[in-house]
Amino acid sequence: MAGLLSSTAMLSPAQAAELIQNGGFESQGVDAYDITGWQVAEQGVAGSVLAQSGTVTEFTASTTVGAYAGNYYGLLDNYGLASNVLYQSFSTAAVSQATLSFQMFINNQNASTDIDAAGLDYSVDATDHPNQHVRVDVLKAGADPFSVNSADVLQTLYLGGANGNLTANNYINYQFDLSSSLASGGSFVLRFATVANQNALQLGIDNVSLQSVSAVPEADTNALMLAGLGIIAAVIRRRYS
């Protein structure tokens, strides 16, 4: 009978699961370039990625609003002529629902936001091809962290520049439905990226959370499972009658 009860438990509603590690950047408790749960990719000579506390950035000494919650936040700090990526790989079974949320600010010390066809390549000619922007994407597993190819990018969540004045902007809350992108399950990458060939640019993120709900079995699958449980129960009754 215990086996029957455990099988019946399989039909209970699926629970939400958190797919992102250290989304609040608090794990280490110190400013750190090696961020628990996250990976970093840097190109160029004037940028850095770290988990940071306080309101003055370590690399460019720029002013920010600081952490949204707790003491630390993820920071991509470009002085110019650099591309930086903060990303995390994650895996999931098939899902019926997936919701990504985070808080983000963007400080752009350049007078304009420039999105060049070169994507995250900071090295294009800065006069003829200004390239100064931020992007947030879901990538296929194994994609180059700087890739903007459609074959690698499953869903683009943000593409643009400063969300306010040039410096010390407040956080904005973002929420995205990733259910379609993650529906079949698999391995993926969440990417936050900056590119700057004009002037300083800071991207700050905090409270990154990706909540998923496992796919609910189809009605036919449930019917088959119940039929199987009925056969098991009949066998048990016959054995002990």
From TrEMBL:
Recorded superkingdom: Bacteria
Every Ice-binding protein C-terminal domain range: 215-239
UniProt xrefs under Pfam families: PEP-CTERM
Gene3D superfamilies the UniProt entry points to: Galactose-binding domain-like
Protein name: PEP-CTERM sorting domain-containing protein
Protein source organism: Methylophilus medardicus
